[in-house]
Amino acid sequence: MAAGILSGPGHKFRLCGLKPHQPMLFPAKDSVAWSRKTVSNGSKTHCMKTWNPINNKKFETLSYLPPLSDDSIAKEIDYMLKKGWIPCLEFDEVGYVFRKNSQIPGYYDGRYWTLWKLPMFGCNDASQVLNEIHECKKTYPNAYIPLLGI
């Protein structure tokens, strides 16, 4: 679609189909529109907390949460099942990514966790997943056990 040029009375060579040009390049600083476009670096935000990176291992995405109760975990599992996701458990004694054998790029040692049994295909109840979590805790008491929805 091409834009045409109008040159009749009342038109000053504007393009049709495009926004007309603004008479001012920058709006006045006292206008409401200008105050909405100002940049904020969050200096007025007092409720934010940063993660301490010194001697503090980074875990998975929601690792800042406190340990969840069985009821809280059951609600998370119910959410997964409603979305059609398949619950899956992993475990490892070390809860963070590490490199044991090599530091070269493309070497994936220490990035994957061990799968606890198979993904729970056909699972339709949170109690089934909670039983597997308790069994994994009993077998590996010091392990980190993330619950995934695949």
TrEMBL record:
Residues 58-150 form the Ribulose bisphosphate carboxylase small subunit domain. The lineage of its organism: Eukaryota, Viridiplantae, Streptophyta, Embryophyta, Tracheophyta. RuBisCO catalyzes two reactions: the carboxylation of D-ribulose 1,5-bisphosphate, the primary event in carbon dioxide fixation, as well as the oxidative fragmentation of the pentose substrate. Both reactions occur simultaneously and in competition at the same active site. Although the small subunit is not catalytic it is essential for maximal activity. Belongs to the RuBisCO small chain family. It holds the Pfam family RuBisCO_small. GO terms for biological process: photorespiration; reductive pentose-phosphate cycle. Gene3D superfamilies: Ribulose bisphosphate carboxylase, small subunit. It comes from the Eukaryota. This is Ribulose bisphosphate carboxylase small subunit. Heterohexadecamer of 8 large and 8 small subunits. Transmembrane segments: none annotated. It comes from Vitis vinifera.
